[in-house]
Write a structure and sequence with these properties.
Protein Mpv17, Mpv17_PMP22
Length: about 220
């Protein structure tokens, strides 16, 4: 019973005010998309890193398995001996998952990608760019990603996985900054052009999170 007064008197107007500048945003409109974004961000980010951990480099190094993917039907592929050997390796690796690393990705997905980006892409960025796709792309690619996204990622994962200090984590980011930002622009630019042009503001981050499932696999491989 205490929860509902808390939601109505504190949480709803706080979220609404942070998002739109008005404390009168309807409860469902203020909270439901945020919850979807938070749960999706945490689960997809953790799942992407888990896939990288249990698969290792076997799929990319097995050229025969790649040829099977392209030349065989899905049914034939799953019945092949190569596929059975590959999935057997996944089961063995699944018993030795790096839990601190998985936790760091889950928290990264929840805090930054799920919650912060919900407000950034749905409310703050449209205001800053005044609805312009070009300005949105510029603020996103040249501002948010190199100055917020990557520093937060390196500081969080560095602390949880390696107990690094914040400055040491930022130095590690500085070494890879050009490579990561270049890869990010190449991957995200066409996706964000479509997203900023056609997606309603309130659901932009959900599009980002779905595409980020693939990007998180790339990021996990590049930085771990």
């Amino acid at each position: 019973m205490v929860f509902f007064p808390f939601v109505n008197l504190i949480l709803r107007p706080t979220l609404a005010l942070a998002a739109t500048g008005s404390p009168d945003l309807p409860l469902r409109e203020a909270i439901f998309p945020l919850l979807v974004s938070a749960v999706t961000g945490m689960s997809l980010t953790a799942l992407a890193d888990l896939i990288v951990q249990v698969s290792g480099n076997d799929m990319s190094n097995d050229s025969d398995l790649y040829r099977c993917n392209y030349l065989m039907s899905l049914t034939d592929l799953t019945r092949s001996e190569k596929w059975k050997r590959f999935t057997g390796k996944l089961v063995d690796r699944g018993r030795a998952v790096n839990l601190p690393r998985l936790l760091s990705f889950a928290l990264f997905g929840l805090c930054l990608k799920g919650i912060f980006q919900f407000f950034f892409y749905s409310f703050w960025l449209p205001r800053i760019s005044n609805g312009s796709t070009i300005l949105s792309l510029a603020f996103d690619s040249l501002g948010y990603v190199p100055l917020v996204y990557y520093p937060f990622y390196f500081m969080l994962t560095g602390k949880i996985q390696y107990n690094r200090g914040l400055l040491d984590s930022l130095r590690a980011y500085k070494k890879d900054m050009v490579r990561l930002c270049t890869a990010s622009i190449m991957f995200w630019l066409p996706i964000q052009v479509v997203n900023f042009t056609f997606t309603p503001d309130l659901w932009r981050n959900l599009v980002v999170l779905c595409a980020a499932f693939i990007w998180t696999i790339v990021l996990s491989i590049l930085t771990q």
